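Please, does this match?
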Amino acid sequence: MSGPGPIGPVVKVAVVQAAPCLLDLDAGVEKAIGLIDEAGKAGAKLINFPETWLPGYPWWIWLNPPAINMQYVAPYAKNAMVAGSPQDDALRAAARRNNIQVVIGVSEKSGGSLYMAQWHYGPEGEVISRRRKLKPTHVERSVFGEGDGSDMIVSKTEIGNVGALCCWENLQPLSKYAMFSQDEEIHCAAWPAYSLYAKLSKAFSPEVSVNVNQVYAVEGQCFVLAACSTIDQAIYDMLVQNDMHAKFMEMGGGYSRIFGPNGQSFGDVLEPDQEGLLIADLDLGLISHSKTAADPAGHYARPDALALMHNKNPRRPVIGFGDATRAPEATEAKGSEPAPELRAAE
């Protein structure tokens, strides 16, 4: 006897588990486009990439003293993503060609600073949002600047309400609640490889991070697409230069997962050193079952006792007045931008 059919609507999604092309932006964009094409061919309507996958996560910050890490500063900045660049346009064109939403983790360069960002492209190649990690974690703050309250974004799209957070933002209670309060249905979690300190610290163990994603899904009654990169031989050979490095970093580290609103796992699971896509059909109708039991920002809330203050205003170091001849920079906007083809026509 066949089981009950889907409650619907049903959305096919893809989650990336793959090594970045560390410090090689153009090669990374080419690899990203190949994965987008693969997801599009499979019929996916959304693909999620790991944290700072372009041009790769700066794992060296956890391995060396700051003076040694200065050798990576210039090449990392040179290979960072810039809004409106040819690489940006190429990714937008790939989204449009495949009629797919793309959420990709990038190291974003703006002026002289870098930010841990997630860029969300729509199926027409438009920019749905560009967000930055609210608070880089620990030594990440030696490389990246901070986002602000306007970066806590859930966008209403044709496939559902889509939001995104980076790494340990997914365990920060107030950040999660800001997302839950916007009726998030599909959450794109971006992670680096779970390869750092895994042998030495339970706090950094793969099990902890996998559980963070599962708990997020249960707490927010949403689907979580957790994309995790891997450490391949090329990255390992670049970074592991001595016995101390070998204690702190290992190969593999890929633990991409898809979880549903009741904590159920969806799609196949790849081996930690295996590259590929996790593809699954998500029945968004299942969200209503979990919301009936506990909607944290709805009927299960107690705003008279506990409430979140969310400042959604962008915070910028310079606010200009009186320059009426210059329009706001497109890269500062959180909202949609036209597709590359339309922008060229303008």
